[in-house]
Fold this protein.
Amino acid sequence: MSILRIRHYPDPVLKQTAVRITEFNAELRHLASDMLETMYAAPGVGLAAPQVGVSRRLIVLDCSPKDGDRQPLVAVNPEILTREGECCEEEGCLSVPEYYANVVRSEKVRVRFQELDGTVREVETAGLWAICFQHEIDHLDGILFVDRLSPLKRSLFRKRYQKIQEQRQEQL
Ligand code: NI
Protein backbone atom coordinates (compact mmCIF):
# COMPACT_ATOMS: atom_id res chain seq x y z
CA MET A 1 0.00 0.00 0.00
CA SER A 2 1.18 3.52 -0.64
CA ILE A 3 0.02 7.09 -0.26
CA LEU A 4 -0.73 8.71 -3.60
CA ARG A 5 -0.17 12.35 -4.57
CA ILE A 6 -3.41 14.33 -4.46
CA ARG A 7 -3.98 16.64 -7.43
CA HIS A 8 -5.05 20.18 -6.65
CA TYR A 9 -7.32 22.55 -8.55
CA PRO A 10 -6.70 23.70 -11.31
CA ASP A 11 -5.06 20.39 -12.39
CA PRO A 12 -6.74 19.48 -15.73
CA VAL A 13 -7.36 15.84 -14.68
CA LEU A 14 -10.01 17.16 -12.26
CA LYS A 15 -12.00 18.54 -15.22
CA GLN A 16 -12.10 15.30 -17.22
CA THR A 17 -15.01 12.88 -17.40
CA ALA A 18 -13.69 9.64 -15.92
CA VAL A 19 -13.90 6.37 -17.87
CA ARG A 20 -16.14 3.45 -16.85
CA ILE A 21 -14.30 0.49 -15.31
CA THR A 22 -14.77 -2.88 -17.03
CA GLU A 23 -11.97 -5.00 -15.58
CA PHE A 24 -12.22 -6.11 -11.97
CA ASN A 25 -8.67 -7.26 -11.40
CA ALA A 26 -5.80 -7.02 -8.91
CA GLU A 27 -4.73 -3.66 -10.28
CA LEU A 28 -8.14 -2.20 -9.43
CA ARG A 29 -8.04 -3.65 -5.91
CA HIS A 30 -4.55 -2.22 -5.47
CA LEU A 31 -5.66 1.25 -6.60
CA ALA A 32 -8.69 1.15 -4.25
CA SER A 33 -6.57 0.22 -1.24
CA ASP A 34 -4.01 2.94 -2.04
CA MET A 35 -6.85 5.45 -2.37
CA LEU A 36 -8.27 4.43 1.02
CA GLU A 37 -4.85 4.80 2.63
CA THR A 38 -4.40 8.21 0.98
CA MET A 39 -7.87 9.33 2.15
CA TYR A 40 -7.31 8.24 5.77
CA ALA A 41 -3.86 9.86 5.85
CA ALA A 42 -5.10 13.21 4.47
CA PRO A 43 -7.47 12.92 6.46
CA GLY A 44 -10.68 13.02 4.43
CA VAL A 45 -14.07 11.31 4.23
CA GLY A 46 -14.03 10.64 0.48
CA LEU A 47 -11.69 10.43 -2.48
CA ALA A 48 -12.29 9.94 -6.20
CA ALA A 49 -9.73 8.38 -8.58
CA PRO A 50 -9.29 11.57 -10.67
CA GLN A 51 -8.01 13.26 -7.50
CA VAL A 52 -4.98 10.96 -7.61
CA GLY A 53 -4.57 11.48 -11.35
CA VAL A 54 -6.48 8.37 -12.51
CA SER A 55 -9.41 9.25 -14.76
CA ARG A 56 -11.52 6.15 -13.97
CA ARG A 57 -14.90 5.75 -12.26
CA LEU A 58 -13.81 4.68 -8.77
CA ILE A 59 -14.50 6.36 -5.42
CA VAL A 60 -13.75 5.51 -1.80
CA LEU A 61 -15.63 6.85 1.22
CA ASP A 62 -15.80 6.59 4.98
CA CYS A 63 -18.24 8.91 6.73
CA SER A 64 -18.39 6.92 9.98
CA PRO A 65 -18.00 8.89 13.24
CA LYS A 66 -14.36 9.73 13.97
CA ASP A 67 -14.33 7.91 17.31
CA GLY A 68 -16.02 4.76 15.94
CA ASP A 69 -14.79 1.83 13.85
CA ARG A 70 -13.75 2.50 10.28
CA GLN A 71 -16.38 1.77 7.63
CA PRO A 72 -14.49 1.94 4.34
CA LEU A 73 -16.68 1.79 1.25
CA VAL A 74 -15.34 1.28 -2.27
CA ALA A 75 -17.71 2.07 -5.14
CA VAL A 76 -16.91 1.25 -8.77
CA ASN A 77 -18.96 2.93 -11.54
CA PRO A 78 -21.31 4.60 -9.01
CA GLU A 79 -24.48 6.28 -10.24
CA ILE A 80 -27.31 8.09 -8.53
CA LEU A 81 -30.66 6.44 -9.24
CA THR A 82 -33.05 8.66 -7.28
CA ARG A 83 -32.88 11.83 -5.21
CA GLU A 84 -35.07 13.19 -2.43
CA GLY A 85 -35.19 16.44 -0.45
CA GLU A 86 -32.63 19.20 -0.23
CA CYS A 87 -29.91 20.14 2.22
CA CYS A 88 -27.10 22.69 2.44
CA GLU A 89 -23.95 21.83 4.35
CA GLU A 90 -20.41 23.13 4.42
CA GLU A 91 -18.07 21.14 2.17
CA GLY A 92 -14.39 21.01 1.54
CA CYS A 93 -12.28 18.96 -0.84
CA LEU A 94 -8.78 17.49 -0.67
CA SER A 95 -8.20 18.92 -4.17
CA VAL A 96 -9.20 22.45 -3.08
CA PRO A 97 -7.13 22.89 0.09
CA GLU A 98 -8.15 25.39 2.76
CA TYR A 99 -11.41 26.43 1.13
CA TYR A 100 -14.88 25.58 2.48
CA ALA A 101 -18.36 26.60 1.35
CA ASN A 102 -21.99 25.64 1.74
CA VAL A 103 -23.30 23.54 -1.13
CA VAL A 104 -26.92 22.66 -1.94
CA ARG A 105 -27.38 18.90 -2.45
CA SER A 106 -30.10 16.27 -2.31
CA GLU A 107 -30.78 15.07 1.21
CA LYS A 108 -31.24 11.40 0.31
CA VAL A 109 -29.90 9.51 -2.68
CA ARG A 110 -30.22 5.95 -3.89
CA VAL A 111 -26.91 4.85 -5.40
CA ARG A 112 -26.03 1.85 -7.57
CA PHE A 113 -22.41 0.77 -7.85
CA GLN A 114 -20.22 -2.28 -8.29
CA GLU A 115 -17.98 -3.81 -5.67
CA LEU A 116 -14.36 -4.71 -6.40
CA ASP A 117 -15.41 -8.16 -7.67
CA GLY A 118 -18.03 -6.64 -10.00
CA THR A 119 -21.07 -7.46 -7.82
CA VAL A 120 -23.81 -4.86 -8.28
CA ARG A 121 -25.06 -3.21 -5.08
CA GLU A 122 -27.67 -0.58 -4.33
CA VAL A 123 -27.71 1.56 -1.20
CA GLU A 124 -30.08 4.15 0.17
CA THR A 125 -28.10 6.94 1.85
CA ALA A 126 -28.87 10.09 3.82
CA GLY A 127 -26.97 12.78 5.69
CA LEU A 128 -23.19 12.94 5.39
CA TRP A 129 -22.97 9.67 3.39
CA ALA A 130 -25.43 11.06 0.80
CA ILE A 131 -23.53 14.35 0.53
CA CYS A 132 -20.25 12.49 0.20
CA PHE A 133 -21.58 10.20 -2.56
CA GLN A 134 -22.82 13.23 -4.52
CA HIS A 135 -19.53 15.11 -4.04
CA GLU A 136 -17.39 12.13 -5.11
CA ILE A 137 -19.58 11.14 -8.08
CA ASP A 138 -19.34 14.78 -9.25
CA HIS A 139 -15.54 14.32 -9.36
CA LEU A 140 -16.04 11.50 -11.90
CA ASP A 141 -17.88 13.95 -14.13
CA GLY A 142 -15.22 16.65 -13.80
CA ILE A 143 -17.26 18.74 -11.36
CA LEU A 144 -15.81 20.26 -8.18
CA PHE A 145 -17.93 21.52 -5.27
CA VAL A 146 -16.91 25.10 -6.16
CA ASP A 147 -18.57 24.58 -9.56
CA ARG A 148 -21.86 24.25 -7.66
CA LEU A 149 -21.60 27.71 -6.07
CA SER A 150 -23.43 30.79 -7.38
CA PRO A 151 -21.50 32.82 -10.03
CA LEU A 152 -20.76 35.52 -7.43
CA LYS A 153 -19.45 33.03 -4.88
CA ARG A 154 -17.39 31.33 -7.57
CA SER A 155 -15.62 34.54 -8.50
CA LEU A 156 -14.97 35.23 -4.81
CA PHE A 157 -13.59 31.70 -4.54
CA ARG A 158 -11.17 32.25 -7.45
CA LYS A 159 -9.75 35.40 -5.83
CA ARG A 160 -9.53 33.81 -2.41
CA TYR A 161 -7.97 30.61 -3.78
CA GLN A 162 -5.36 32.57 -5.70
CA LYS A 163 -4.31 34.21 -2.43
CA ILE A 164 -4.20 30.84 -0.67
CA GLN A 165 -1.97 29.47 -3.44
CA GLU A 166 0.33 32.51 -3.34
CA GLN A 167 0.73 32.08 0.42
CA ARG A 168 1.52 28.39 -0.08
CA GLN A 169 4.18 29.29 -2.68
CA GLU A 170 5.78 31.76 -0.24
CA GLN A 171 5.90 29.09 2.45
CA LEU A 172 7.77 26.67 0.15
NI1 NI B 1 -13.57 16.45 -3.41
Notes: The longest helix spans residues 151-171.
